[in-house]
Amino acid sequence: MSMQIAHTRFGDVEVDPATILTFPRGLPGFESYTRYKLLHEEKPNPTVLWLQSLDDAEVAISVVQADLLGVNYQIELSDEETALLQLEAGHETVLLLTLAKQPDNSKGISANTMSPIIINATSRRGLQKIGLHADIVFRNNPA
């Protein structure tokens, strides 16, 4: 049975329970919110996605896939983190980076490369790994 959520950008959205992402420990600052839905604008290849809390409609976090920004990680997970994600050999993972507007009221946006969100695409379980180092590759896209 599907459920509905209200989102300031997307209006009322119907959520299929099979698409819900579970963060057993929540996210830093939102530890009690464990159920999320990944939303995006209806256009081909959206860049910015929104991680919408299903526990509080006011909580939506803008994110981007790390590989779209040329950010590469070699992440070592503890046994506890591997179990939390229900991660097994052959499971696909998705790495998301949270986005934030610059505090100086400029139009700039920054991505938090030190704390990626890791999602097991098979089990639909996730966690945020805090305090990592990322190798950032800048691509030159000639016009």
- Computed structural class: mainly beta
Tell me about the biggest sheet?
Answer: 8 strands, antiparallel
Taken from the alpha-carbon principal axes, the silhouette is globular
Write the H/E string, N to C: EEEEEEEHEEEEE
Radius of gyration: 16 Å
The number of distinct helices, counting runs of at least 4 residues, comes to 1
Strand content: 35-45%
Helix content: under 10%
Distance linking N and C termini: 48 Å
Q: Which features would summarize this protein structure in a list?
A:
143 residues, mainly beta, 8-stranded antiparallel beta sheet, two-stranded antiparallel ribbon, 1 helix, 12 strands
Tell me what you see in this structure.
By secondary structure, the protein is mainly beta. The protein is built from one helix and twelve strands. It has one helix at residues 79-85, and strands at 3-7, 11-15, 21-22, 35-40, 49-53, 60-65, 71-72, 93-101, 109-111, 117-120, 125-128, 135-136. The strands form three sheets. Strands 3, 4, 5, 6, 8, 9, 10 and 11 form an eight-stranded antiparallel sheet that branches. The protein is globular, with a radius of gyration of 16 Å. The mean pLDDT is 86.
Task: Characterize this entry briefly.
The chain is mainly beta and 143 residues long.
Write the layout of secondary structure elements.
Elements: E1 3-7, E2 11-15, E3 21-22, E4 35-40, E5 49-53, E6 60-65, E7 71-72, H1 79-85, E8 93-101, E9 109-111, E10 117-120, E11 125-128, E12 135-136
Antiparallel strand pairs: 1-2, 3-4, 4-5, 5-6, 6-8, 7-12, 8-9, 8-10, 10-11
